[in-house]
Each structure stands twice: as structure tokens, then as C-alpha cells.
Amino acid sequence: MVKSTIIDAPVDRVWAILRDFNGHDRWHPAVKTSVIERHLPSDLVGCVRRFQLQDGSELREQLLTLSDLEMTFSYCLLDTPVPLFNYVAHVRLLPVTDGNRTFWHWECRFTTPAGREAEMAKMVGEQIYEAGFEAIRRHEALAA
Amino acid sequence: MAKVYTSSVVNAPAAKVWARVRDFNGLPSWHPAIGESRIENGEPADKVGCIRDFRLRNGDRIREQLLGLSDYDMFCTYSILESPMGVENYVATLRLTPITDGQRTFLEWTAEFDCAPEREAELVSNIGTGVFQGGFDALKRQFGG
Fold first, then answer.
1. A-chain residues within 8 Å CB-CB of B6?
2. Which of B143, B145, B142, B113 is nearest to B32 (CA)?
């Protein structure tokens, strides 16, 4: 499942927000609270974020890679109340030199029980990825 | 080694933009700086290894070889064999990526090359702004934004 968009702000400013693996409760509307387990730094590869969604459900995700040079990170789901298994996601930012904007690419792979693929892809794609795009688009730190 | 990175957005689906730019012999049909082009030895323009011999509108002649072409990943990589530009080991890639939000296309055009140090800034600017962004601007006009 792939979603991508253009953010009308310079890539380093978007990256400054997204690179904090524990910062999503401050910008993503679906995330209520988030902590990094064992008080590890949020840019330590291997750290685990434990977070609650607005509906109270709790998830744990582990940071697998983080690159400030490539402006990418990837992570996997460890625990979730919904049937998303083997979920690995990749976030990648690229500069749009024409207009000093940002191309944001967010993709994942997962397995789920037969028959629920479309439902899970729609949930992740719309409620997490596209909702995240919209929240960053309106982020006060990126206001012109 | 000098590097050039130019990227832009065209308001058309990636498949449509790719259909325009994938033809290694098709620069004159969309790039305003290119006057005429032919593929040497009568080879197909999508045969990896083929060579295009083309002229800029200013009369300069350039020969380039197709090193890689992917309709799946929508990229094309090529090298310069002969040019009056004063570059060595020049390899460039034009890559298209779909933007799912709004049926648009993200375009990247990159190049790496060696040159005399005192000419690097001028070459990077001419290639990045003139050739690459000039091509993107033409595509934006052709696809309405």
C-alpha cells in the first residue's frame, strides 16, 4: 500500500517534524499519547514507541531504520488490536527543487486474514497516512 | 564528482508523463532545447545500449547511450559518450514516481559527472536549471500545470 503527496514547505522543515519517532502524538490526529519504552532516545534505532489512539486502543511499533542523509525511516508493528501482521512501513522525503517543496512517500506491507485486505488497506491508507498528510499540511511550524 | 538534482511536479498521471518521456529518441517532441535526434544503426529506441545522436537548437551535437530503462519503475539512465560540454563520466537518470494524492507525477532528474573544478558551478547550473528544469517546465506546459 502506497500513499504519496506534495507538502508546500521545504523538505528539511518537514523532516524535522517527522524524524522524531515519538513526536506523532503532537501532529497526527489519530494519536493521543506516545512514549518511548525504557526511556530510550527516539532516534535510537531499535527503540519502541508505545502509543494510544484516540479510541483508547494501544499499539507498539519499533524503529527499524533512520537516516538523516536520505530522510527516510522505517518501522514495524509489534502489537496492535487490529489484524495487521508483519506490518513494515517506510517513510521517505525528497526535495522538490522546483518551488522548494517536499515529496512525501509512505508505504507499507502487511498480511491480514483473507477477505480483510481491502478494509485494512483503506483504514491504514486513509485514517493514518492521508490523515497524517493533511495534519502536516496544516502544521503551524510549516505555516508560511 | 559533481552532482545535479532537479525535481518537479506535473499535474498528470505518471503513466501519461512516462509515455511522453520514455522514448529515448523522443527528446525533440517534448524538450525545447533539442532540435533533432536519431538512434544509431537503426536500433529500436528502447533497446538498452542504443545510442542517440542529437543536436541542440544551438547546434551542439551530443551522443548518449541508454544504460537502463524500466517501464515498471519508470526510470531511464544514460551516459554521455560525446559532447562539447567538457564533462567526463557523465551518467544521468530521469525518474517518475506517482503522487497518489491528486493523480500527479513527481519527476526527478539527476546527474553525476567529472569536470574541471573551475567549471563545476557553471555546469551544475546549466544542466540543472537549463536542461533539466527546462524540460520539466516544458512538460508542465504540455500537461497543463
1. 97-98
2. B142
Q: Give dist(CA B12, CA B27) in Å, integer.
A: 19
Q: Which of A13-22, A135-144, B28-37, B64-73 has the lowest mean pLDDT?
A: A135-144
For residue B19, give its domain range.
2-142
Q: Is A44 on the interface with B (CB under 8 A)?
A: no
User: A96–B104: do the CB atoms touch at under 8 Å?
Assistant: no
On the question of pLDDT at B145 being above 80, the answer is no
In-domain check, residue A144: no
CA distance A121 to chain B (A): 14
Residue A19: CATH number of its domain: 3.30.530.20
Cα–Cα distance for residue pair A47/B15, rounded to 1 Å = 39
Residue B33 has a pLDDT of: 95
Nearest CA in chain B to A95: B7
